[in-house]
Write a structure and sequence with these properties.
5-stranded antiparallel beta sheet; 15 helices
């Protein structure tokens, strides 16, 4: 016998023998090129960043030196800071200082404004760059500076600090003595410019201080601890950062990363193209797969099509591969199951036909109708014409309901209506007529149920309690029970009659039921029609004896069945 071969082993051998060398070579070449390219980009970025950082440091140094000149050894600042100076001298001194600051603003365009502030005299005066406009914006800046200076334990720092006003971050340098300070403000956005392919921004180590919207939209993380890294969600950027001397901020350089191929040397390009050529091994692998996999699949499909057209499996429908042989065997088993299911469906059809026959037997109840005719005859004989007319009207309604189309479901409300009609018939013909009480959520009466189902249990109660010397009391209840796996539609019929025998209870609760006797509907038929209507796995019956009487309970899972769905279900089962 020829040895079977696993197709999985064949596929794995082919893939391992061809694709692993390609993958290994490409990983090596890509890793090598990425290292070289990233190193070049990083070195170029470091160089550019140092140039920008040196420029920023130079500008800050010039501003700091001019600010120091306006404070140290400046007679005007001494007069302004003297708490005993009169108002005129203080005003003249402040005017002279501000004139020097105007010169500072012209010589250093990066400076946003210069402020002199005396907390003792409560004087705060400022000059502003042309780049800042708006009274509110200037007042908010002055407020931020005063709050900064008036913080507890404030001392003139030896470095620049960061304050925020109107969502904009500023570098602030404060110098002074005797509660009098000279302040220089620099908007961080005015300190930097960049090229078309790169961007510069400031960060305090936790988040961006400039270009916040750009950073957020691009998903850039400028707070990383590494000096260089790649970041960004929509676009990849090379991020390099360095600190600025005498400030709490860092300067961040961002350059768009265009990919590994940009800037490759000739040698590196050769390596890359060799990697592409090595992909030609994939078609070779495909041809091998075609021989060992695709052809057996085509054969299997051809066999299935032959079976579909009425053919049979033959001895030639065998395969060398274990998996395809298993599929063929499974297909044979499926064909056998289909044959068995056809037999089962035929048996079910016979059962449905039997249920239909029982349903028709329900409609033909000679004993009941003979009694009705006898009652009519008696009424006419006693000249009870009005009662006779009433009896005939109710009897005709009952007959119309019993002779209805078997495929049509009815609402619970319709069933109850004809139950009441049936009770009236009994009231007109019995010495001790039954009483029927309806107790339930009336919003549920639109639910569909098989016809002559609840009426069946009422008729049985009346029949087996016909010899009782008291009134038979029947109670029909219905409600919606809440459960973890869904709602349960609950219906119960209870009477105070003689109840079920022990043998009947055992057979009914086991599902054996009771056969019809030709005079009344069998409970078995009602149960079968509920099973066919809802599905056997969704309906449960419980039979018990009350004290006194009998109790029948019906539990229907997920009962929200509308008329369209119900009628379709009845048509499928044929009842």
């Amino acid at each position: 016998m020829k040895k079977k071969i696993s197709i999985k082993r064949r596929i794995m051998s082919i893939l391992i023998g061809t694709l692993i060398p390609i993958i290994a070579f490409q990983i090596y070449s890509s890793f090598n090129m990425a290292q070289v390219m990233n190193q070049k980009i990083t070195e170029a970025g470091m160089t550019a960043l140092q140039v920008y950082a040196g420029n920023v440091d130079g500008q800050l140094g010039l501003v700091q030196d001019r600010l120091l000149e306006s404070v140290a050894g400046n007679e005007d600042f001494t007069v302004f800071s003297n708490q005993d100076s009169d108002e005129v001298k203080t005003y003249v001194a402040s005017y002279n200082i501000l004139e020097e600051y105007k010169m500072l603003l012209r010589q250093n365009p990066c400076v946003t404004g210069c402020i002199i502030y005396s907390s003792g005299k409560e004087i705060c005066r400022a000059v502003w760059s042309d780049r800042i406009s708006g009274y509110d914006k200037k007042e908010n800046l002055l407020k931020a500076v005063r709050e900064h200076i008036e913080e507890e334990n404030f001392r003139s720092p030896n470095s620049w600090e960061v304050i925020t006003s109107d969502g904009i971050h500023y570098l602030v340098r404060t110098m002074g003595y005797r509660k009098t300070y000279a302040v220089a403000l620099i908007d961080l956005n005015n300190l930097i410019t960049a090229g078309e392919e790169s961007s510069l921004l400031f960060t305090d180590g936790t988040g961006a201080l400039t270009d916040m919207e750009f950073v957020a939209s691009e998903g850039i993380d400028p707070a990383g601890k590494q000096e260089s890294c790649f970041t960004g969600k929509r676009t990849r950027y090379l991020l390099i950062r360095t600190d600025i001397a005498n400030t709490p901020v860092y300067l961040v350089y961002l350059r768009v990363y265009k990919g590994i191929l940009s800037g490759l040397s000739r040698k590196e390009m050769y390596i890359f193209y060799i990697s592409l050529l090595s992909l030609l091994l994939i078609p070779i692998s495909f041809e091998l797969l075609k021989k060992t996999f695709f052809k057996p699949v085509d054969k299997l499909v051809s066999t299935m099509n032959r079976i579909k057209d009425g053919g049979e499996l033959s001895s030639e429908d065998t395969y060398d591969e274990i998996e395809f042989e298993q599929v063929s065997n499974t297909f044979r088993a499926m064909l056998q199951q289909i044959r068995e299911l056809k037999i089962e469906a035929y048996e079910k059809k016979l059962q449905i036909q039997k249920t239909e026959l029982q349903y028709y037997q329900i409609q033909i109840r000679p004993h009941f109708y003979l009694n009705c005719l006898k009652n009519i005859y008696g009424m006419l004989e006693n000249n009870k014409n009005e009662e006779t007319q009433k009896f005939i009207i109710y009897l005709s309604r009952h007959l119309r309901y019993m002779m209805r189309d078997k495929t049509d479901p009815v609402t619970l409300d319709e069933e109850i209506s004809y139950i009441k009609n049936y009770i009236v018939l009994q009231e007109l013909s019995m010495k001790y007529p039954p009483k029927c009480t309806i107790d339930g959520d009336m919003s549920l009466t639109a639910r569909k149920i098989p016809a002559i189902s609840i009426l069946t249990f009422v008729e049985n109660s009346v029949k087996y309690a016909s010899n009782m010397p008291v009134h038979l009391e029947i109670t029909i209840s219905f409600s919606l029970l809440k459960g973890e796996e869904g709602d349960i539609f609950y219906i119960s019929v209870r009477d105070n009659g003689c109840g079920f025998s022990n043998d009947q209870l055992v057979r009914l609760n086991r599902g054996s039921g009771m056969e019809t006797d030709g005079e009344h509907i069998g409970i078995t038929n009602v149960m079968q029609r509920f099973y066919l209507f809802y599905g056997k796995d969704r309906v449960g019956f419980a039979f018990s004896n009350a004290d006194p009487g009998a109790k029948i309970e019906i539990f229907i899972q997920d009962p929200d069945v509308r008329s369209g769905k119900t009628e379709a279900s009845l048509s499928e089962v044929g009842i």
